[in-house]
């Protein structure tokens, strides 16, 4: 069996230079706890496992994880910042990510962030980060009102494909409202909807028709609600072709072009992913170390009796091995 690889985890460094009055900063609560602040607002309480490689490696050992992809926490993307500012922020966090992963670069696999609002700068920072030791890139699922089919994003994805750099797409900046600000509803409903919308944009916006098959791209949180509603999208593509048939082929013919992680928390949901996308397009993810993630890592994959042993092995590590180019 391939080693177990978790493709969806995040880090936060233990401090960083001043970024600006409305940018994230870290308020230390103790040596092992801190609060991410955005301006004067509390964003998220975190523990030392966000920056302490030894704590992270110990948790991996306890749960049988051989390697983790370590990606930025999306609040740091800064896509709303002027490009020059966003470039500086990306460089800061990309360099700090390498420091977090340095104690064991064989097991802690850093993914960088880029100033996606400036495609040329994003490509340059990707090249710089990869040359420095990053193995892939995490991007947000939108830039303001622009989705992943925006011309500049397509340019960046083409660059990633040409340089064989894997891309992990994470939802972020979900809109709020009185209805969505209760019960963490932005995370419980907004995140799945955001990811679903972005996969639709990749398909109907013609991105998969423009970029080569060499693009390795994975969507977080099981691809949101996409797998469950693919039938609705397919029906609409055929019945309202005047509005929706903007891709060269029907939506169902693109499911082999992307992967998703396994953070869906229930074997029934995992079966929907496998039945819709195929076991070769699902990779183990946990959203470690955040409280809405899966712990122990991989428990749903292990509990899913419908999986064959070869499918289980592929989801736990084999597919990630290929995705990461290991």
From TrEMBL:
Top enzyme class of this protein?
lyase
Which InterPro entries does its entry note? ACMSD (IPR032465), Amidohydro-rel (IPR006680), Metal_Hydrolase (IPR032466)
Q: Name one Pfam family in it.
A: Amidohydro_2
Could you tell me which pathway this protein works in? Secondary metabolite metabolism; quinolate metabolism
Got a GO cellular component term for this one? cytosol
Q: Where is the Amidohydrolase-related domain?
A: 5-326
Oligomeric state and partners? Monomer.
What name goes with this protein? 2-amino-3-carboxymuconate-6-semialdehyde decarboxylase
Tell me its EC number(s), please: 4.1.1.45
Coiled-coil portions: none
Q: Name one GO molecular function term.
A: metal ion binding
GO biological processes: secondary metabolic process
Protein family per UniProt: Belongs to the metallo-dependent hydrolases superfamily. ACMSD family.
* Key words of the record: Decarboxylase, Hydrolase, Lyase, Metal-binding, Zinc
């Amino acid at each position: 069996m391939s080693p177990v690889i978790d493709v969806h985890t995040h880090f936060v460094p233990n401090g960083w230079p001043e970024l600006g009055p409305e940018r994230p900063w870290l308020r230390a609560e103790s040596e092992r706890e801190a609060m991410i602040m955005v301006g004067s607002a509390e964003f998220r309480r975190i523990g030392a496992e966000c920056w302490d490689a030894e704590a992270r490696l110990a948790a991996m050992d306890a749960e049988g994880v051989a390697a983790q992809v370590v990606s930025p926490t999306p609040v740091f993307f800064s896509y709303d910042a002027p490009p020059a500012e966003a470039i500086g922020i990306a460089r800061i966090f990309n360099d700090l990510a390498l420091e977090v992963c340095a104690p064991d670069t064989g097991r802690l696999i850093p993914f960088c962030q880029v100033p996606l609002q400036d495609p040329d700068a994003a490509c340059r920072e990707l090249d710089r980060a990869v040359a420095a030791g990053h193995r892939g890139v995490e991007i947000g699922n939108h830039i303001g009102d622009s989705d992943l089919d925006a011309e500049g994003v397509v340019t960046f994805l083409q660059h990633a494909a040409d340089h064989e750099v894997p891309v992990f797409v994470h939802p972020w900046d979900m809109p709020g409202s009185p209805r969505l600000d209760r019960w963490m509803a932005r995370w419980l409903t907004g995140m799945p909807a955001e990811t679903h919308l972005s996969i639709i944009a990749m398909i109907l916006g013609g991105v998969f028709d423009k970029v080569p098959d060499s693009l390795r791209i994975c969507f977080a949180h099981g691809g949101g609600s996409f797998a469950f509603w693919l039938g609705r999208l397919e029906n609409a593509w055929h019945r309202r072709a005047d509005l929706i048939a903007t891709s060269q082929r029907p939506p169902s013919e693109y499911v082999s072009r992307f992967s998703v992680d396994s953070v869906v928390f229930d074997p029934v949901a995992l079966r929907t992913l496998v039945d819709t996308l195929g076991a070769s397009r699902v990779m183990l993810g946990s959203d470690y170390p955040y409280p809405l993630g899966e712990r122990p890592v991989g428990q749903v994959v292990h509990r899913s009796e419908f999986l064959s042993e070869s499918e289980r092995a592929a989801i736990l590590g084999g597919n990630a091995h290929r995705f990461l180019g290991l």
